[in-house]
Amino acid sequence: MPPLPGTGAHPEAEFPEYAGTYRLEACLGSGGMGVVHLARSASGLQLAVKVVHRPYAADPEFRARFRQEVAAARRVSGAFTAPVVDADPDAGRPWMATLYVPGPTLAEQVKRNGPLAPAELRRLTAGLAEALRDIHRAGVIHRDLKPSNVLLSDAGPKVIDFGISRPYDSDLRTETGKLIGSPPYMAPEQFQRPREVGPAADVFALGAVLVHAATGRGPFDSDSPYIVAYQVVHDEADLSGVPEDLAELVGRCLAKDPAARPTPDEVMAELRPPSYEAAAFIPAQRRAAAVTATAVAGGEREGAEDATHVREGGVPARRWGRGRSRGRLVVAAALLLLVAGVGAGGFALWGGGGGGAAEAPGRMTEGKGRATESGAAEAFSPWSTVLRTSKNATPVCSSAGVGAALYCAVDGTGTVRIDPADGRVLWSDRNTALRDASAPVVSGGVVLSAGPDGKLRAYDPVKGTPVRETGLSASPGSAFAAGSTLLVVADDGTVTALDGASGTERWERTLSGHTRPDFGLYDEASGLAYAVEHAANGGSTLVTAVDATSGRVAWQRRLDGMLTPVSTAGAGELVLTAMNRDAETVALVRYAPGKREATRIALPFRMDEPQVAMAGDAAYLLGRGGSLLAVDTGAGAGAGGTGADGEASGGAGELWRLETGVGRGSAPVLGEGGHLYFSASDGRLLAVDTGRGAVVGQTRARLSGGKLTYASDLPAPVTAGRTVVGTAPDGSVFAVDGLAPEGW
């Protein structure tokens, strides 16, 4: 909507000049609870800043509701909402800043131009259904979807205003006798049983919004909200004027019984091509891949019956043992996932003498599809294998490189070896109890997998027979794979290096200055493993580079800020993320040990728990809300002068940004053809073109029993040449062609 003047008879004509550090430039509009202003960040980013009306700022109940709105909006930030950039619910005038989305609301569009054309209506239907799907996947119920809360942008509809939304598990309840919402778009249960409102209420609102978009009026129409409430509960919806091909679907959305309404996924399924005309909103690559053949894996090897294999049209987490805090383990897993994804990880080293040597000729050839014995190239053949799981566990996998075997672990099946050419399960160890499994690692010619008992089990990579068991430490600690060496950190801070092949001790020592070091990155080129430890006050981080084979300390430095290593760059430089005291990532830091210089590169906006992949100077950060940012870490290096401790400051050279619509994503990994891959919590695998910052491929969702499940950490895809392997909550391990993501 165009900005409105901020003067005159406006109820907030005296609006403040600033909200936090953001200068308020113009008024975009006013609602019952606050005023929305146009503002800009220090980097020039346009923002929409909602500032609460002064009387409500003094109401403790309203402040609690506003905190919930901020939390809900942050939780669902993605492709179909306006992502939250900053907020202060405790300010004198509480405020929240989101990215500014140019475009009218649906209410304004219909008022100015009349009902939408049929094709536009179908695009809106699909966009809003996908928005609700992602909102519900984040565990949030909107509860106030209406035409004025839908923005129509060039990129599709955006759902805004989470003022009365709540998480599924929220303890904040509607007061007895007080109804909150907009009656024409409220579901019957919101009037009858407000404490029992679930996601189906948003689907009812979707149906009412679609009737308004198609006809200019609601399905229940009266000047009196009390009459509308009666009609919603007792009368049939008026669907006259709704296009015939949508009327039945909209009618089911408006069913009185919540259980009779379709889910957002079911709404989307009914709008798929060829009947679905909304190509501008839902690219062709989002369609389900076609199944080309079906075969049950026979009992060729022990454990083959634990999987179902279907032919259809990377990088593992490598830390085992007891975790210390969720945040540190998530970051550590992301870092480990990155190593092989950027082509500099330890998997190439681990492959020698392992699964790769056992592969028969004629398996996957990089960039050429499958090859026959005569050497003729065949088309790439996608496949899917479903492993038996417990408690909706998602398999985690690793590979030793192009054409090498694929090793996976999952609670319910155990550790398995899979043929990367066709997805057959070659062996299974039947150690089914693998809670919170980490991906198996090939090290020193054996396959290592960790169980909940704190032991590492080694298997023959070809036969799958047990070779040995190794205790991580007297007191369960954690192990980090660094090439052919396993680094085990005990509770007292002692680091023990084990030979991956034999399990024997290579060296043992404490690292000077560290109380409990945390290894977060291994660089195969230099053989260095990087340990970090944050100061208690969060003001600095001790970084130590250790030769994994000998235990020699190559260098050590205390750097300003809460830093986490994510990659190495040219000339032996180390790249780290920097967090503020609110655990938001605000910058990248490049440290050159030879020059003892650190360059801080500010991000254009704060990010929530981003996971990072790097290729050269380009860094790709995927935030928890689905925001994907690409920056040139070489741009601006040294610009802005030098800060404390010799640290130079500069601004990141933003390459592009993309809202992926993924509520939770895995660590991203880089593959062939300039593509970046990551997984979503519903089992989708997405591909992004790193050159232009666009989603170019997306597989279908693979849910467990049709329901969304969550794991503490999402396994990242595995890349090996043109093959990209993903995993999903339904227990499936599947391979797609990384060179042709548009056909997924």
UniProtKB/TrEMBL annotation:
ATP binds at K50. The chain crosses the membrane at residues 329-350. PROSITE patterns: PROTEIN_KINASE_ATP (PS00107), PROTEIN_KINASE_DOM (PS50011), PROTEIN_KINASE_ST (PS00108). InterPro entries: Kinase-like_dom_sf, PQQ_b-propeller_rpt, PQQ_rpt_dom, Prot_kinase_dom, Protein_kinase_ATP_BS, Quinoprotein_ADH-like_sf, Ser/Thr_kinase_AS, WD40/YVTN_repeat-like_dom_sf. Gene3D superfamilies: 2.40.128.630, Phosphorylase Kinase, domain 1, Transferase(Phosphotransferase) domain 1, YVTN repeat-like/Quinoprotein amine dehydrogenase. Residues 22-282 form the Protein kinase domain. GO terms for molecular function: ATP binding; protein serine/threonine kinase activity. Keywords: ATP-binding, Kinase, Membrane, Nucleotide-binding, Serine/threonine-protein kinase, Transferase, Transmembrane, Transmembrane helix. PANTHER family: MITOGEN-ACTIVATED PROTEIN KINASE KINASE KINASE 20-RELATED, SERINE_THREONINE-PROTEIN KINASE YBDM-RELATED. This is Serine/threonine protein kinase.
